[in-house]
Design a protein that fits this description.
InterPro entries: Homeodomain-like_sf, HTH_AraC, Tscrpt_reg_AraC-type_HTH
Number of domains: 2
GO molecular function: DNA-binding transcription factor activity; sequence-specific DNA binding
Helix content: 40-55%
Shape: elongated
CATH topology of the largest domain: Jelly Rolls
Pfam family, one: HTH_18
Number of helices: 12
Protein name: AraC family transcriptional regulator
Keywords: DNA-binding, Transcription, Transcription regulation
Amino acid sequence: MKHYKTLVSVLTDNGWAPPEHPLFSAVRCNHACTLGDREFTSDFYMIGFKKLKSGVIRYGRTKYDHENGSMSFFRPRQLIEFRDLELEEDGFLIFFHEDYLNGHPLHSEIKKYGFFDYESNEALHLSPKEERTIWELFDKIQSEYTNNPDEYSREIILTHIDSILKYSQRFYKRQFLNRNILTSATVSKFNQQLSDYFERGLLETQGLPTVNYMASTLHLSPRYLSDLLKEETGKTAIEHIHIFLISEAKNLLKGPDYTVSETAYKLGFENLPYFSRLFKKEVGLSPNQFKKQALN
């Protein structure tokens, strides 16, 4: 598998002109947009827009869903494959090395954008109006990139990239809302998977369910699952897991059969103090106080 450390190697290997800047490039794709025919990794962030007619895009070994005009976001050192892509219309790719962000607020802020960790069936699908907004920003970036760069160019380019990311965050929220039937189904499936995990006794044999485990059962990335649940319910995936566990704990503690430590063990908690802290945070009482109240 090839790992690209330099931007010039990415572009020249794929028949494109060398970059105007060693750490940044903006490429417009005219009905074809490919990066080799095999898997690769890189030290670059990539942002892409395309209306895919045919071909395969894989990110983290999962296929991207490209039904309409959609955006994809790739972070450094993630496994990527672009193969035999044919576009219905023009698209673009923006590359920037992580070092291009050094000394700029975006160096830290970009880590807040969860969609760089989204995977299968999680691309951002744009409305025609949203497409126009993104293209306007790309055209400004490309103009700044190609027309006599000066000491202001990097700051201006990063400002426009920051705008693309902020708009993408907004558009993802719209996508969550517009697909609320799918979102609601995901919430129901999530809760059902938790119940199944408990009923099969996996809490005792495998411990607490992780967000990664729950996401894998729903064929979603952990970050996308948490963002989707947060948008729909106001709580993240880990918060939903905690709520479920504390609900089961309250049920067990209300009867005489289980002590606090036995309850914690049955629910997969190896650390009793952690269970007690979590219980008190959610209920407002310690497990011992709750049990005494319930039995009285």
